[in-house]
Amino acid sequence: MIIVIDGPAGSGKSSTARAVADRLNIEYLDSGALYRAVTLIYIEANRDKEVFFELLNQKEISFYYEDQTFYVAIDGQSVTNELRTAKVAEFVSEVAALPRVRSFVNNLMREAVIDGLYIAEGRDLGTAVFPDAELKFFMSADLEERAKRRYKERKSKNPEITLEEVKQNIAERDLKDSKRKADPLKKADDAIEFDTTDVTFEQQVDKICSKVSEVIEVQN
Ligand code: DC
C-alpha cells in the first residue's frame, strides 16, 4: 500500500512524511533523494549524457530509511551526505527532466514498494509514478515561507548562504519542475490539497496521520 505526498520544494513534504512514517510505523521513500543520487552520477560523468547513461546502467543504487534519515548508496558506498550540496541542487532539475532518468527512478521506486506500507514524497508520484495510490496529498506554501524554512535548515551547515539565494534556487527549481515536458510537478485530480503556509508542523503531521490511519483501517 502506498500513500504519496507531492508538492514544490520547501512545502514541508519531507519532514511531514518522515514524522508520519515514524508515528505510524510505516516505511518512508524520498524520491527527490534518488534524483539527487542520480545527479551525482551525472556530475561524475562531467555532464556528458552518453557517459552518464552508460554509468547509470552499471551502477547499483540502494536506499533505506532509519532514524529520521533516508540513506542512499551507490554501489554500496553511502552518498547520503552529498545529496544536499549546492552542486547537486544546481543540476538536479536538469537531470530530473530527462525521460530516461525518470523511468530509471520510477522503476527503483515501484520495485521498492511491492511489499509493505509506504509513504513516499516527490513531485509526480500521484500523477505518474503511483496513479493508483491509496491516498494522495498535494502540499504547498507561499514561496517566501518555503524559502524561510529551507534557509533555516541549510544555515547551520552552510553559514555563508543567504535567504535570497535560497529563495532564488527554490523559485528556479519550481519553474523547471512544473514546466518540464516529462511528468511535471502537478496536483493529481484526486489529491487532497494542503496549503501549509500558516499551519504548524504538528498540525500538518496530525492532519495527514489521521487521514492515513482512516485509510489503513478501511484496508484492514
Ligand atoms: O525533493 P527534492 O528537493 O530533494 O527534489 C530534488 C529535485 O528532484 C527536484 O528539484 C525535482 C526532482 N524530483 C522530481 O523531478 N520528481 C520527483 N518525484 C522528486 C524530485
Give short descriptive properties of this protein.
220 residues, Rossmann fold, binds 2'-deoxycytidine-5'-monophosphate, 8 strands, alpha/beta, three-stranded antiparallel β-sheet, 9 helices
Question: How do the helices and strands line up, and which of them pair or pack?
Answer:
Elements: E1 2-6, H1 13-24, E2 27-30, H2 31-44, H3 49-58, E3 61-66, E4 69-74, E5 77-78, H4 86-96, H5 99-112, E6 118-122, H6 125-129, E7 135-140, H7 143-155, H8 163-179, E8 192-195, H9 201-219
Parallel strand pairs: 1-6, 1-7, 2-6, 7-8
Antiparallel strand pairs: 3-4, 4-5
Helix pairs in contact: 1-9, 2-3, 2-4, 2-5, 4-8, 7-8
The chain binds 2'-deoxycytidine-5'-monophosphate.
Would you kindly provide a written description of the structure presented here, covering whatever features stand out?
The protein has 220 residues and is of the alpha/beta class. The chain is globular. The model has no long low-confidence stretch (mean pLDDT 94). The chain has one domain: P-loop containing nucleotide triphosphate hydrolases (Rossmann fold), CATH 3.40.50.300. It is 52% helix and 17% strand. The strands form 2 sheets. A 5-stranded parallel beta sheet has the order 2-6-1-7-8. The chain has a 3-stranded antiparallel beta sheet with strand order 3-4-5, covered by helices on one side. 2'-deoxycytidine-5'-monophosphate binds next to α2, α4 and α8.
